[in-house]
Amino acid sequence: MPSEITWLGHSCFQMKTAGQSVLLDPFLDDSPSAPVRAEEVEADVVLLTHGHFDHVADAVPIAKRTGATVVANFEIGEWLKGQGVAEEKVIGMNLGGSLQLPLGRVKMTLAHHSSSLPDGSYGGTAGGFLLELANHRVYVSGDTSPFLDMKMIGMGGIDLAVLPIGDLFTMGPEDSIQAIKMLDARSVIPCHYNTWPPIEQDAQAWAEEVRRNTAAEPVVLAPGETYQLS
Fold first, then answer.
1. 177: part of which helix (H) or strand (E)?
2. What's the first-to-final CA gap in the chain, in angstroms?
3. Domain for residue 8, yes or no?
4. Is the pLDDT of residue 6 over 80?
5. Does residue 182 lie within any of the structural domains?
6. Model pLDDT, residue 230
7. Which of 23, 24, 109, 123 could disulfide-link to 43, CB 3.0 to 4.6 Å?
8. Is 66 in a helix, a strand, or coil?
């Protein structure tokens, strides 16, 4: 079965691969751009890049309802347990670490960003994820600026990169072009934009710049739309 990824608004994505439903940074019930509510999504695995509210807001109720395995940094993992997520369903890790899951190999990568949890407690170090699936390598940067280690992340080949373009809190469109070049990704999906006025961006103009300046194919999704990895 081919892998596919659906944008659920902001930085939330649902990926279906190897018979698994993978939810990334669930922020749905309070998101003005989400096409579904938290109670409507299913998940076998939840991946959390960092602790900010707009990335973890619905992680606890979804994990409790679905019984999903939640992968996050160690500090967020401990916070999840304190919120009532079953200990055996939480995998805490850290930058550079990897683990094997039914969907494939998951590695936590560097991100340059802050991380605090909704209650103000320490959220550890922000990160991203490199997913080594059966037939594809998918890189989800999380909230970040560009950084030179993206060249190393891209050395094994990146079939799809998911990058923020909203600016202000993350890299903007111009810096994302540099990130795409370093990653040498085949295709790229933008996120973390147009949720609120401070991060409004013209995604079609961004896509034109990607085509003009890189070898990647930009994939601009509307919330709820799905892209199938080829």
1. helix 173-183
2. 11
3. yes
4. yes
5. yes
6. 84
7. 23
8. helix
Q: How many domains does the chain have?
A: 1
For 114, the token pair is 């802050």
Identify whether 229 is part of a domain: no
**2: confidence class by pLDDT, cuts 50, 70, 90:** confident
Report, in angstroms and rounded to the nearest whole number, the Rg of the chain calculated over CA atoms.
16
- Whether 1 has a pLDDT exceeding 80, the answer reads no
* Phi (first) and psi of residue 17, to 5 degrees: -155, 140
d(CA 6, CA 159): 16
Residue 159's domain comprises 4-222
Find how far residue 100's CA is from the centre of its chain.
18
One-letter amino acid of 136 = H
In the numeric block, the tokens 């751009």 are attached to 33
Task: Give, as one character, the DSSP assignment of residue 216.
Answer: P
Q: What is the pLDDT of residue 75?
A: 98
Return the CATH number at 123: 3.60.15.10
Q: Is 215 left (phi over 0), alpha (psi -120 to 50) or beta?
A: alpha
β-pair type (90-93, 69-73): parallel
Asked if residue 227 belongs to a domain, the reply is no
pLDDT of residue 105: 98
The pair phi, psi for residue 197, each rounded to 5°, is: -50, -40
Give CA–CA dist 111/94, Å, rounded: 12
